[in-house]
Design brief:
Blueprint (H helix, E strand, L loop, with lengths): L1 H21 L4 H27 L5
Helix pairs in contact: 1-2
């Protein structure tokens, strides 16, 4: 479920970035896409690091 949400947000960020670059005067969409992508990657990294810390020691 979380991986699907991660991929959906990445897809939305890519689409916004493409629209922001292609359309004249919509550069703010590119900025929103970059921020959205960065937040999504940070959230995913934090989630993975928390999961890695719960492994039992052998």
């Amino acid at each position: 479920m979380v991986m699907a949400l991660f991929l959906l947000v990445v897809l939305v960020a890519v689409v916004l970035g493409i629209i922001g670059v292609a359309a004249d005067g919509l550069g703010y969409l590119l900025a929103i896409a970059i921020v959205l992508f960065a937040v999504d990657v940070i959230f995913f990294a934090v989630r993975v690091s928390r999961r890695a810390g719960r492994r039992p020691v052998r």
